[in-house]
Design brief:
Number of domains: 1
Strand content: 25-35%
Shape: globular
Strand order of the largest sheet: 3-2-1-4-5-7-6
Radius of gyration: 16 Å
CATH class: Alpha Beta
Length: 203
């Protein structure tokens, strides 16, 4: 996982290939297909807050979390300009403590795949499970091992690595092949993973 200092530097210098400035089209499609029109949403790795602000403007109660304090300050400024109410927090997701109402949806665009070991990914999935309401949904965009070799772009996970972390805590609704939305080409391959919290999982 990237350190906060490294991320801060990237936000200061504008080295942000993942920050298109537009709400992610896969997220838009997800909310449309699932017919979700209200509820509490956690945006992990919120960055400059584009997706969180879009959700807040639709009427969702949104919390945006990012490891980078610089990103969070940028997100707060952007939300103020958009007259959007989002609770932006800087911190490590694995140490994040939420004392409010459980989330109906957790959205993760490119955070889960930054954890290098199976144990860390399992811990990430446990944390998502803890934060979600019963039957809550985890929607994740993950770098794929498909495609040619590359030295840049999102970290790469196989379907097996994803499933090993998510099962049995979640019911995997689908894993779909997609292309990442970034500001440069070629667009790296990725996965859309939608999972529902299992009611009877006890750890």
């Amino acid at each position: 996982m990237k350190s906060a200092e490294k991320l801060d530097e990237r936000y200061r210098t504008g080295d942000l290939p993942w920050d298109t400035g537009k709400p992610n089209s896969h997220l838009l499609q997800f909310f449309s297909e699932e017919k979700i029109t209200s509820g509490h949403v956690l945006d992990i790795g919120t960055g400059t807050g584009t997706n969180a602000i879009w959700l807040a403007k639709l009427g969702f109660t949104v919390e945006g979390l990012d490891l980078s304090p610089v990103a969070i300050e940028m997100a707060r400024e952007k939300a103020a300009k958009a007259s959007a109410t989002v609770n932006f927090i800087s911190g490590d997701f694995l140490r994040y403590e939420h004392k409010g109402q459980p989330f109906d949806v957790v959205f993760d665009r490119g955070c889960f795949h930054t954890f290098d070991t199976p144990a860390e990914r399992n811990q990430f999935a446990e944390k998502v499970h803890e934060l979600l309401a019963q039957n809550g949904l985890w929607f994740s965009i993950i770098g794929s091992t498909d495609g040619p070799p590359r030295t840049t772009g999102p970290p790469r996970l196989s379907v097996r690595e994803i499933a090993e972390a998510i099962e049995p805590k979640f019911e995997i609704r689908y894993i779909k092949a997609i292309q990442f939305e970034i500001v440069t080409t070629p667009f790296p391959l990725g996965w859309l993973c939608l999972a529902r919290k299992r009611r009877h999982y006890t750890g």
